[in-house]
Amino acid sequence: MLKKAQSIHDKLVQWRRQIHRHPELGFQELQTAQLVAETCRQLGWRVKTFVGKTGVVAELGEGKPCVGLRADMDALPIQEINDVEYASEIPGVMHACGHDAHTAMLLGVATLLEKETFPGKVRLLFQPAEEVGDEEGISGAPRMIADGAADDLDAVFALHVDSNLSVGKITINSGYSSAGVDTFYAAVIGNGGHGAFPHRTVDPIYLTSLVIQAINGIVSRRIHPFEPAVVSIGAVHGGAASNVIPDQVELIGTIRYLQPEVQQIIQQEVENALQITRPLGGDYQLKWEIGYPPMLNHPQAVEIIRTVAKQMLGEDQVGIPDNEMGAEDFGFFTQKAPGAMFYLGAKIEGDVRYGHQSRFDIDERCLPIGTALLAQTALTHLRSHPLI
Ligand SMILES: [Zn+2]
Ligand SMILES: [Zn+2]
To answer: Which fold has domain 2-175+296-384?
Structure first.
């Protein structure tokens, strides 16, 4: 399968660069979706467009089992600074997370699997908006699932490029492999006035300093030391003049967790921290935006990927990723069907280009490898369907 994927290397690079030049933000992936839909139709896949707003679903084969392969298509609001022939042509928008590569590889899978025979059905899930939610705070995966994209799925697989892992290697772990995330929007409400007469005010900046202390105590004082948890305040806004105490201060923050109980504790403790304002004469408002669930890799799905990758790349090329608290909305798909995501080595040796940076880039030699791994994983699942 790797040889077959390498024979379409130029095509993979061409797709990736075409998408890279024309990046589109979440739920605006119209050109990308059109390229995907047209390519899959020409290859003989049954194609549905506008699934989950701008997503595309393509199917080949009939009946059960049904295996899903997912690629995200959205770009980020970042100005690319790379001076390459395929650099973004859209000011302020860039594929800085590698979703262009994910989409190109899934088109590669469409090309390779069209030539194979297999029992059951393959469903390609070209997903919009992994990085952002819409006006209701809902991202691409749950939007596609609401439109039926995960119905009857028996297993689902995906990959993400890792620009800090050498080409030819992959990493994957069993169990929780990315964090759940929620966002909070809080307002600390006081009663403003002249900076020279603080005794006539309820100073929300002072109250906020206490709230920040309390919020930063949550992980160290309220969460079990063996449980991963993060609470970070990313924005504090209040006041405009040296001699005016404002009426309120706004706080925005993110929380990360693996276990649902930890999510509950953190949410309650953020509320408790804000309640400090009340005995001191102030008040607060708190709104939660519930984000992505933790991504759970099913042990058997992980085993299929590991076996395929070891055969294709070599025993010592398959590792375990470092633990970290990033979030990934593929977790919505693995709530619907057993599945797993692996990280694909895509590093430019000697010059690491981290994701979400204006210098991000990958070594394109990873493209046939990711394509072959996804295609072979799907076939292996369909031919042995151990998850049913
Ligand atoms: Zn990203
Ligand atoms: Zn990403």
So the answer is: Aminopeptidase (3.40.630)
Write out residues in the chain with pLDDT < 70, as ranges: 385-388
Q: Alpha-carbon torsion 271, 177, 106, 12, what sign? A: positive
Ligand nearest to C-alpha 72: 2
Ligand 1 centre and the CA of 52: distance in Å?
A: 19
* CATH T-level topology, domain 180-290: Alpha-Beta Plaits (3.30.70)
Measured in Å, residue 162 CA sits from the centre of ligand 2 at 9
Q: What is the mean pLDDT of the chain?
A: 96
Question: Of the bound ligands, which one is closest to the alpha carbon of residue 329?
Answer: 2
The answer to whether 324 and 288 have CB atoms below 8 angstroms apart is no
- What's the CA-to-centroid distance between 130 and ligand 2, angstroms? 7
Residue in 86, 257, 284, 292 annotated catalytic: 292
d(CA 273, CA 124): 45
In whole angstroms, give the CA distance from residue 227 to residue 6: 43
Whether the model clears a pTM of 0.85, i.e. scores above it, the answer is yes
Task: Give the distance, in angstroms, between the CA of residue 251 and the centroid of all CA atoms in the same chain.
Answer: 24
Distance of alpha carbon 146 from alpha carbon 140, whole angstroms? 10
Contacts of residue 77, Cβ cutoff 8 Å, sequence gap at least 6: 25, 92, 93
The domain spans of the chain are: 2-175+296-384, 180-290
257 flagged as catalytic: no
Q: Is 343 a catalytic residue?
A: no
Give the chain's count of helices (H) and strands (E). Answer: 11, 16
Look up residue 200 and give its amino acid: R
Catalytic residue among 80, 130, 269, 364: 364
d(C-alpha 201, C-alpha 284), whole Å: 16
User: In the chain, which ranges are E strands?
Assistant: 46-51, 55-61, 66-72, 121-127, 155-162, 170-171, 175-178, 180-189, 193-194, 229-237, 244-245, 248-257, 283-290, 295-297, 318-319, 339-345
Give pLDDT, residue 388.
46
